[in-house]
Amino acid sequence: MSDAPTILSLRNVGKTFEVQGRRIEALHDASLDVKRGEFVCLLGASGCGKSTLLRIVAGFETATTGEALMWNRPIEGPDPSRGMVFQDYGLFPWLTVRDNIGFGPASRRRPAREIQETTDHYIDLVGLGRFADVYPHQLSGGMKQRVAIARVLANEAEMVLMDEPFGALDAMTRERLQDELLGLWERTKLTVLFVTHSIEEAVVLSNRVIVMSAGPGRIDSDLTVDLPRPRDVSGTDFNDLRRSLSSKLHSHHGKVAA
Amino acid sequence: MTIAADRTQTPPAATVPRRHFAFEAGRLKQPALALILPALLLTWWHFATSGQVYSLIPPPAQVGLAFYDLAVGGIRNDFFSGTLATHVVASVTRVYSGFFLAVIVALPLALMIGRIPAVRQMFDPLLQILRPIPVTAWLPLAMIIFGIGPTSAIFLVFLGAFYPILINTVFGVRSVEPRLFEAASMLGCSPSAQFARVVLPAALPAIFTGLRLGLGFSWMVIVIGEMTGVPTGLGAIIMEARQLSRTEVVICGMIAIGVAGFISDRIILLIGRKLLSWSPNHV
Ligand SMILES: Nc1ncnc2c1ncn2[C@@H]1O[C@H](COP(=O)(O)OP(=O)(O)OP(=O)(O)O)[C@@H](O)[C@H]1O
Ligand SMILES: [Mg+2]
User: Fold this and answer.
1) Which domains are present in chain B?
2) What confidence tens digit (pLDDT) does each residue in A84-120 have?
3) Can you tell me which residues the record assigns to a coiled coil (chain A) (predicted)?
4) Which of A36, A246, B1, B178: CA 20 to 30 A from B19?
């Protein structure tokens, strides 16, 4: 992994929101390099700027200080190469599963044959063959999130940004989707930036955990997770790592409260 | 009445599988429930009016006869006999002319008001001032501008349908979830393409609500529109019959408007259901 090229780099990125004359520093001096193919989790308590960081990478927000670069070029607005998976899915309710997945290719004016092939492929990949012609409101949360992932992959995203994508799902569905996501990630050359509240989720999924803390939001520590996969959640190594992350998270948290 | 009441009696739930039962009972229950109030009204009307010497309101039987005469003729063979179709066609034509005119003007205007701040700033004050003026208040001016004839009626229908369509469309266009714009742009849909691919479909339920309300208003306004001295139309026969004290014909005209309005509402509802089958909260 270490010899992979750097796909994303954040250099002293800060973001200050101004709301009714009040300034809120959501992110302070965040620096981060991500290599292609890494699975990076952003972990931290509520309000520590995880979403803000992700949205800057997505191009939905612009950094007030510092710079965000992808392949060494400044990020200027949203782009199909950086696909986002939202916690609330963000599917187009008027499009069927198939058309939601084909939205990206259609937007980029791919030929109809190609769109058809791409959508078929990704519908199969996320196991929604029977639901291809169904509208989002007829799907369960887990299925909706599969569609959201598929539509980003169908659009040839190199980097997938996920903001608590499984936060609204029940524990069983969540585990299933985590496994599926890992499967997809292992088969492709995807780079994943994954925001979560859950220490366990971070340890199950990632190569690397970025711990963040609030007031102002910043990056506190950067840990490599080199446990073998598939990971055994009851193993000692797993639990040691979980404990150390937990104490890191709480010590940062304590500093803010003090 | 007792028969209808018996039909609505539900069989014991235990004998039939639940889902199936609920479905069947629902199918029978709905029309039966819908008929209760009209039946009560009709009964009350009948007993309040028939047999009375000085009733100003004709009993239902007399209205029924008048309706038959109005539709087919052959009973009184007077000025009104067998003219219903002519009047219905005249009113339907005017309602739909005014309505479609309103759609053609209000829809694009609303889309622009909803998306382009400059257009909103330009049109909003004027439209807000004109809005509280009731359609009836426009009648004298309409007659001066368009003369006595169907054009005035069409203009009033246009006014009546204009605001519901405009306001609902503006609302629909402005209340698109921001998340959907983010989703579209990260999928490579350019801002200019987002209008057709996101704004329009997302606003469609609200647009349809506007169209439905607008069409309903059109039917309400048509009577006023046809008071302007046009010889045909359901509004016209109501006015005519009123002057001749033919109250039973007035009521026939009212019923005809009600039925015509109901049918056109059903049609637009059917179209809406087809186009909006994706929407979970659209009837
Ligand atoms: N658009 C905005 N306008 C104003 N303030 C904002 C905006 N977005 C975020 N903030 C503020 O920035 C800070 C960080 O928010 P952010 O959403 O990035 O946190 P988070 O780590 O994602 O939290 P959570 O885990 O609850 O999602 C918060 O104090 C929040 O109130
Ligand atoms: Mg967040």
Assistant:
1) 84-275 (1.10.3720.10)
2) 999 999 999 999 999 999 999 999 999 999 999 999 9
3) none
4) B1
Task: Tell me if A26 is assigned to some domain.
Answer: yes
Q: What are the structure tokens assigned to B120, written together?
A: 């909103």
Contact yes or no for B183 and A84 at CB 8 A: yes
As a whole number of angstroms, the distance between CA A134 and CA A131 comes to: 5
Per-residue confidence (pLDDT) for residue B25, from 0 to 100:
61
Query: Is-contact A231 A240, C-beta < 8 A?
Result: no
Calpha distance B236→B19 (Å, rounded):
51
* Structural domain for A27, as ranges: 1-81+192-258
- Going by the DSSP 8-state scheme, the letter that residue A84 receives in this structure is E
Does residue B157 sit in helix, strand or coil? helix
Rounded to a whole number of angstroms, the distance from the CA of A141 to the nearest CA of chain B is 15
DSSP B38-83: HHHHHHHHHHHHTT-TT-SSPPHHHHHHHHHHHHT--SS-STTTT-
Which of B94, B211, B202, B100 has the alpha carbon at shortest distance from B153?
B94
Q: How far apart are CA A223 and CA A239, in angstroms?
A: 15
Q: What is the mean pLDDT of each run of 10 residues along chain B (283 residues)?
A: 39 43 63 91 92 85 94 90 94 96 96 94 93 90 89 94 95 95 96 94 95 94 85 92 93 95 94 89 65
Give the number of whichever ligand sits closest to the CA of residue A197: 1
Nearest CA to ligand 1 atom 7: A17
Q: What is the ipTM of this complex?
A: 0.92
Domain harbouring A72, CATH code: 3.40.50.300
Q: Are B217 and B156 in contact (CB under 8 A)?
A: no
The number of folded domains in chain A is: 1
Is A88 inside any structural domain? no
Sign of CA dihedral B53, B54, B55, B60: positive
DSSP state of A1: -
Residue position matching structure tokens 């009016």? B49
3-state secondary structure of B20: helix
Q: Which of A13, A24, A55, A195 to mutate to test the pocket of ligand 1 (most atoms within 8 A of CB)?
A: A24
Q: Are B214 and B165 in contact (CB under 8 A)?
A: yes
- Provide the shortest C-alpha distance from residue B168 to chain A (in Å): 19
- The gap from C-alpha B266 to its chain's centroid, in whole angstroms, comes to 9
Backbone angles phi, psi at A3, to 5 degrees: -90, 0
Whether B278 sits inside 8 A of A77 (CB atoms) is no
**Partner residues linked to A9 by β-bridges:** A33, A69
pTM (two decimals): 0.85
Considering only CB atoms, B188 lies closest to which of A96, A104, A135, namely A104
Phi, psi of B111 (to 5 degrees): -60, -40
Closest-CA residue in chain B for A159?
Answer: B186
Q: Are strands A191-196 and A73-74 parallel, antiparallel or unpaired?
A: unpaired
Chain B interface, best mutation among A95, A107, A149, by max B CB count within 10 A: A107
Token pair 């704004």 in the structure block, residue: B199
